[in-house]
Amino acid sequence: MSSNGSLLDQLGIEHPIIQAPMAGVSTPEMAAAVSNAGGLGSIGVGAEDARGARKMIDATRALTVRPFNVNVFCHEPATARPDVEAAWIARLRPELTRLGAEPPAALREIYTSFRDDDDMVALFVETKPGVVSCHFGLPREDQIAALRGAGITLLASATSLREARIVVDAGIAAVIAQGYEAGGHRGVFDPDAADDQIGTLALTRLIARSFATPVIAAGGIMDGAGIAAALRLGAAAAQLGTAFVACPESSADVGYRAALAGDAAHHTVMTRAISGRPARCLANRFTAIGKAIADAEIPAYPIAYDLGKALHTAGKRKSEYGFGAQWAGQGAPLCRPMMPAAELLRTLIDELRWARHIKNG
User: Fold this and answer.
1) Mind listing the pLDDT tens digit for each residue in 30-43?
2) In this predicted model, what pLDDT tens digit does every residue of 12-64 receive, in sequence order?
3) pLDDT at 234 over 60
4) Which residue in 20, 186, 255, 315 has its CB near the most CB atoms, within 10 A?
5) Residue 245 to residue 40: CA distance in whole angstroms
6) What is the C-alpha separation between 349 and 334, in angstroms, rounded?
7) In this structure, what DSSP letter does residue 334 have?
């Protein structure tokens, strides 16, 4: 059996399509709808503690008996820089004041890395989600052993051949090849290292030719033709995120949806300003501010995100959505507004079949 077919069997899915986790946007309803339709639905718990993650897992399990993916963040803990953080608050104080909000006195590290969260590991060993995927790096070796011992299939993102080698050497079941055009946070292991900014198709092909481990292509893929292209280059499956943001099951707010349907979709920007890590976002007020700011002036992830979320909350109270984390990939203009997740998956499957038919015809 091919490694591609083996991966689909291992994931327990019928079709080579994975809905990206998208913490803060994907929901149990979305993940269950995708899994029930034969793909792999995903929820993101990187912004949750074990208690919040349990609620999301239980809610998803109440809606599907099929496997689904639970995504975690494996970043290195942040190094606080009080002077940089104070300057960051001062820089953005005028925006908060304009929105009628008081700036925080200090910034917090709002997310705990999975690498430091043994309660989350224990939760996964207990609840045994079918798949766990990792972003920003890998869990500790003992955590990997515990998850694998519980029968959980592990996936991990890589943005380069070097990162892919680390993933493969750790015995992870598949490498998620995240191209530079992907929406949301870059999965780079070290956000301060040089980034070759490799696109999805090139990265997929490089990893597929270099390793026997299956590859999942991620970034800029919005339809069946894109999925077919990735599969032809050696991917076992494709992961799509932006394509699902506009689904009714998404928790994207009205401002996010409006921006995705507008001109901003044609002008995505890679920025650190919102969270402290490079992430591709729809062009908005926050990304415009970020263009003029050096990376060294932005607090570390996720400390910077504490202020980013405060700005977004203040803006929403005034019906201003320009400070939102409106993550989207470069394929954003191909988004299909308000198509239910299950219907979108069926459409993608039909398009993939047609693309394959054309190739073989």
Assistant:
1) 999 999 999 999 99
2) 999 999 999 999 999 999 999 999 999 999 999 999 999 999 999 999 999 99
3) yes
4) 20
5) 16
6) 16
7) G
Is residue 165 within 8 A of residue 189, CB to CB? The reply is no
Q: What is the DSSP letter of 90?
A: H
- Tell me which residue of 306, 317, 322, 321 sits closest to 99, measured CA to CA: 317
User: Do residues 199 and 173 make contact, with C-beta atoms less than 8 angstroms apart?
Assistant: no
Burial level of 196, CB count in 10 A (0-12/13-18/19+)? exposed
Distance of alpha carbon 288 from alpha carbon 269, whole angstroms: 9
Half-sphere exposure of 182 (CA within 13 A, CB side): 33
DSSP state of 253: -
| pLDDT score of 91 more than 60 | yes
For residue 329, the Cα-to-chain-centroid distance in whole angstroms is 11
C-alpha span between 229 and 47 (Å, rounded): 33
* C-alpha separations of 339 from 67, 102, 287, 291, 355 in Å: 22, 39, 28, 33, 21
Cα 40 to Cα 8, 35, 48, 63, 240: the distances in Å are 9, 5, 21, 14, 11
Both structure tokens of 4: 């591609």
| Secondary structure E strands in 74-173 | 131-135, 153-158
Q: Which domains does the chain have, with CATH numbers?
A: 3-77+113-248+333-360 (3.20.20.70), 80-110+269-327 (no CATH)
**Measured on CA atoms in the order 349, 355, 358, 361, is the torsion positive or negative?**
negative
The answer to whether residues 301 and 276 touch, using CB atoms and an 8 Å cutoff, is: yes
Tokens of 335: 């988004």
Helices (H), ranges, 131-245? 141-149, 161-169, 200-210, 224-232, 242-245
Rounding to the nearest 10 degrees, give the CA dihedral for residues 121, 123, 129, 132: -30
* Cβ atoms of 176 and 133 closer than 8 Å: yes
Cα–Cα distance measured from residue 60 to residue 42, given in angstroms and rounded to the nearest whole number: 9
273, 278, 297: which is closest to 189 by C-alpha? 278
